[in-house]
Amino acid sequence: MTEPKSPAAGDRMPDPPDPAPEMADALRCAKTIILQVRSSPHGVRRDQLTALREFGSDLVNFCLQDLLDRDVLRSEPGDQSYSLSFSELQSIVDMVRRRELALVAQPELSELRNLCGESAVVSVDDGQAARNLAHVLGPHPMPVIDEFSTRFLYHCSASGKVVLAYATQERQDRLLNQPLTQRTEHTLRDRAALRLDLQETKRRGYSISDEEFSIGQRAVSAPIFGESGEVIGCITVAGPSYRIPHARIPALAEAVKAAARRITDQMIRPDLTPKRPTDISVLSEQASGECSAPKWSEERQSFLWIDRDDNQLWQSKLDGSSEQLHQFTTRPQGLVVTTADQVVALCGDRLINLSSGKESLMESPVQCAVPGTANDIWAVTERYGEKQLINLTLDGHASDHAVLPLGLGSITYCAVSGSIYLAVPDRGEILSYNLITRQLKQICQFSKASGRPAALAIDANWSLWVAFEQGWGLSKLSLNGQLLARYTLPLPHPTGLCFGGPNRDRLMVTSKRDGQPQEVLDHAPLAGHALLLQLD
Q1: pLDDT value at position 514?
Q2: Below-50 pLDDT ranges, the chain
Q3: Which of 160, 162, 343, 514 is deepest in the core (most CB within 10 A)?
Q4: Residue 11, pLDDT score
Q5: Where are the stretches annotated Disordered (predicted)?
Q6: CATH fold group of domain 23-84
Q7: Is the CATH code 3.30.450.40 the one for domain 90-267?
Q8: pLDDT of res. 149
Q9: Which class would CATH give 279-534?
Q10: pTM listed for this prediction
Q11: Domain boundaries, the chain
């Protein structure tokens, strides 16, 4: 029997045999064809599909034509090879990107749930609705379920309204011209009112579903962007209306927007080539052997920092002007500006509240300190040969919290994650210690070639910044330890970092001059100065 002629790619296939092939065999044959074509970036010729002989030529021809008709494969007239269609390639790209988004978002979902005490979900647009990609349920006995159904209608769910708000005008018009299901009595079906809601969503950067998707439930959602500025998903917090009153929505929105920005930063795959600061201003009048402990005072709209050579507290405004505020009798080890803008110096075993003029004795000297969230202080001290994390009140009362690794350097605190971040310079480690779970874990470790992590800070978008001794640089990390950006520093030994300014986008860096070889100082004229950096 003569074998049927193999069709040329792009030609019409022969009519399928009668009766039609068994469905199971056809599916296996089609799957094998797709796997073969996917494995070859240059296409596959018919005579190369040796693995398909088990199916017979009629079935192979039938499946090839069907895959061409369904726009899974493509070919050019006269070309003898088959490749994946452009739509199929885009589907694969979308699938890979969604898998990556789910992996990147999972830690952020957990952090958001822990911070807000409510369920959190990441959704993507599947062309018909916003679809649940990944979620974590809240800690309460009866977490919200409806907001995490498989798909969310565009016009009444928080995630769906994000998709609508950032859609092209043509697509938004098309979707709004379709019938709008009345999910609840609060569902917006008036198209003019809905358009105003979408405009407000885009203006403020988040959407609200106020019992529109399900009675008794509210949700807040913010967009996640891709490399081209398109929305590739959104992250949502949802809970019952009695736990999410209207007054709480702005605070939840800030946390959701910050999580969306961090996920966006990781999805964009930033260029990690070290960049230079766009502007550097010198705040100190003259170089010091060591200046340190930079802090931002919201009330004063100024940076505060310590000149350890002369045991002086200085204030520097954003215009570059500086003045001395206080002369200490002993060398201060730390400086804190509390959430109530109380300025507190830690000198040996003394806690000096410079705002109130009160002074208290502590049980032991403090090595470094950061403000908490309740006008309190988190500090590191050494007792019985161990590093201890303690919580201090402004009257000097200390509560032990944890034993920390020896060799600890700088610390900083992040209210969103509820964690203290710690640098261990000799090991190049950055650790996080969660104050709720009391779990200590390593989030990243730098090569010795990067230098020793010497100073830490959290910016307005809840990213973690690290400055390096003998590394002449800064690194920006996600709270999970992923490297997001690098910057150069004109300093061999930074001692402190602090973000300030109205938008918290100006970075103050203090530095040390003492102990540096003259050859290094010859090339680092700013060593020992307090600097103000503008980063792009």
Answers
A1: 95
A2: 1-21, 145, 147
A3: 162
A4: 45
A5: 1-23
A6: Arc Repressor Mutant, subunit A (1.10.10)
A7: yes
A8: 56
A9: mainly beta
A10: 0.56
A11: 23-84, 90-267, 279-534
